[in-house]
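Progress note, sequence design subtask.
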């Protein structure tokens, strides 16, 4: 079966899918993206992802290329044509194609691309064992709340993590405080069992999984504190974990040379991860692929 991508109004073979060299996403990273999970044929937290996509576009003054209903239709078709039951869908929208010039072009329609890929999350053994993080300076810009394709600092941080055989890089500001990770949000559990994650602001991306986990933690009667925490506090925490569309809630057992807790995934994140799977299983939204 051939992979199919959606590019500016057409479904094309993935290997032939292309945008113009003067696409502003390519030249200026002038665009935004979303990554939504497909679990058992259903999009996960679809409304949350479309809300964030609309917000990212609004903040950058890029027009919505189509209505939300249109986005749904195309996303569903991409999932169906690629027969993705468990995987991710990637949506990218840029300010469009125009001769290279910094100011916004006039009367230029945005470019939109959607792809879908099989495979969601790591193997169960990864979460069962827990993962390690390296700390890395957060050198990003001041609007990390916008999900732009401008990911170079994230790429460099993730590469540093990979070169040290770590799962993720936990990003630390000049004040020693953790913002998030290179492609996930960061959490700690305090000695008295409270979950702590950085409050929403321009300093972090408002993760859709982060929000879902806050709701699930609330429902479990866990205390959630949205406040900043330092790298030192994280290293001394009872538990640490990261969250994203594809890692769900992933237990962390080491940061740099510091072992977290007893070196095994903690009970709170293990339980929260299980509740996240319950949530995935209970999804009742539209079925995009399968039966
Ligand atoms: N990354 N923080 C950053 C910097 C991210 O890039 C992501 C997501 C998150 C978590 O957001 P969510 O829970 O909505 O996935 C936090 C995606 C998955 C990516 O870039 O592939």
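Output:
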């Amino acid at each position: 079966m051939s992979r199919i991508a959606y590019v500016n109004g057409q479904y094309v073979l993935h290997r032939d899918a292309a945008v113009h060299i003067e696409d502003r996403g390519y030249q200026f990273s002038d665009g935004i993206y979303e990554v939504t999970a497909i679990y058992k044929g259903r999009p996960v937290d679809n409304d949350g992802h479309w809300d964030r996509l609309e917000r990212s576009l609004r903040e950058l003054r890029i027009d919505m290329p189509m209505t939300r209903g249109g986005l749904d239709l195309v996303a569903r078709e991409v999932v169906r044509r690629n027969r993705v039951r468990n995987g991710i869908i990637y949506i990218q929208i840029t300010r469009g194609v125009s001769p290279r010039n910094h100011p916004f072009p006039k009367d230029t329609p945005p470019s939109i691309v959607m792809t879908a890929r099989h495979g969601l999350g790591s193997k169960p053994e990864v979460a069962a064992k827990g993962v390690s993080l390296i700390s890395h300076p957060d050198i990003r810009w001041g609007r990390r709340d916008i999900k732009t394709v401008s990911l170079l600092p994230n790429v460099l941080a993730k590469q540093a993590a990979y070169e040290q055989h770590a799962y993720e890089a936990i990003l630390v500001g000049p004040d020693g405080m953790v913002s998030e990770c290179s492609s996930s949000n960061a959490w700690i559990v305090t000695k008295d069992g409270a979950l702590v994650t950085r409050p929403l602001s321009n300093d972090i991306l408002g993760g859709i999984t982060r929000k879902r986990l806050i709701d699930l933690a609330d429902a479990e009667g866990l205390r959630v504190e949205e406040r900043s925490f330092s790298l030192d506090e994280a290293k001394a925490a009872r538990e640490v974990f990261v969250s994203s569309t594809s890692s769900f809630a992933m237990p962390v057992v080491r940061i740099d040379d510091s072992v977290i807790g007893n070196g095994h995934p903690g009970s709170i994140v293990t339980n929260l991860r299980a509740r996240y799977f319950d949530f995935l299983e209970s999804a009742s939204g539209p079925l995009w692929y399968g039966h």
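The first strand starts at residue 4 and ends at 7. Work on this subtask will continue into the next period as scheduled.
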